[in-house]
Model the fold of this input.
Amino acid sequence: MPLIAVLGAAIIILLLISWWKRASGELLLIMAVAALCAVVMFSWNGLLSPFTVIDVGFPLMAAFDNLSYLSFIILAIASFLSLVASYNYVKERGQNFGAYIVLILFALFGGMIMSCGTNLIAIFIGLETLSLSAYALAGYNKDLASGEASIKYFVLGAAASAILLLGIAFYFGASGSFEISNIRLQVMNLQAEVTNKNIFLLSAALIITGFGFKTASVPFQWWAPDVYEGSPLPVTTFFATAVKAAAFVAFYRIVSSMIPVTGDTLMQAFYVIAVLTMTFGNVCAIYQDNVKRMLAYSSIAHAGYIMIAFVFMSRDMIAAKEAMLFYLLTYTVMTAGAFACLTMLKRKGVNHELTDISNLAALGKRSPWFAFAFSVFLLSLAGFPPTAGFFAKFYIFKSAIQNGFVNLAIIAVINSLISVYYYMRPVVVMYFGSDQLPRVSESTDEEFNYSTAGVIILCMILVLILGLFPNAVLSMIGM
Amino acid sequence: MNYLILAIVIFCIGVLGLLVRRNLIVMLMSVELMLSATNITFVYFSKVWGVLDGQVAVLLNFVMAACEAAVGLAIIVQLFKLKGTVDIGNWRELKK
Done:
């Protein structure tokens, strides 16, 4: 049902904008938001109802369990935030908002197929639907930076898809089926046949490479900072939240099916990836003067924290799922908030984005509420106690320690201490630092726009709710 | 087994072409080569297991590859309009 709502809305809007050229942006936005609300409502219903859709007479290739429903909700929230935040952004630049909405909705549809698919081919098709829309979205600004981001994302993403597809082919070769669950039945056979097991490990390596690209984890992260910097801001929000969340959920499903066969072999690979990813992200983020690029590196670092859940997955699959989903939800909300704050920054008559750190100077005096909201999101990203980011990190580190990965947890805590430095830098600049950095000649002038401000307020409320009452959400995830 | 070796050789040629060549059109062709190599793998494993799933996957891959080429060429055309070249050596707007 949620899938039909998104696809239906995307097609209706597509037809509407092609027949009725003067359709107003508000109308299209309201339709898209209605579809997203329908997704949340259907998923909520599905989450609460005791029935699970298992057999409807034809191969469904999808599982509708609480993992899929919760990821539907996360994806819908992420798309909602980037859609609403982009309304003014797109309008000011005189671009076609209808096509933008349609691309976001198709990307969301692909992401939802990815997160509920139980067949590797279905997951791959979802991934391609998501990626192809994302390539087009990255190039939505008609300037050189956006074009470069788009082509970089396209070439590397297409290569990653091909590698992932080769991984799927070897998976098929080892198990004789594309079904993820099927592999469990064949564990016994595989233990006997060494060749098959080797093919299977090869496929696991290729699949990890493919998803490593999509989730931007080391050593496949090189595209991320450039693409995040070059893309339009709301689209960057979408990449950092929805694309990443969908990739992680699909990755979780595939890896959870591999664990019975591979045992602890994959764990070591994930250990290395997690440590390298968070260290790389945090260390590189220190040197960035562009806040957008800094947030791109920070998103790499957060992918590293989420990878911790994959490390202890072979010990405790349920805890890994809960920690990952909670982290994805909080990460989505706080990153979308931070990017929405950046979208607010602009100067009259200037169309390019003002994301350099000097543009934030003395913002605390000029617009205190706005500076306060941005500080809350940055504190949350850094993981300070009253906000959501703290509990997400706490939960994931706690599960790691419970499963015996004390060293990993220590490395992760050291990393979050490093991250405090670069998250605090914009805050310091906003409140105290009008002299440290070269000022731009004219002061930035935040025009108030309701859609973006609404997104910031909503994210703020969600961050505080998730931070103050994490138990309510956790019990929902654990259902 | 020979099919598999062929597929892997073609795949490696694709990867090499992607890494070495600087022309966007040729890079797109290299990606298509990688996808075709994967198709050979699918057909081979389909034959080994005696099921048709792999061959159905090949058909789906053709559609995927066509979509990817369409989007890729559209992006390349837009870049060509902006800059007048399809050589990626000339693209350094973003910090390296």
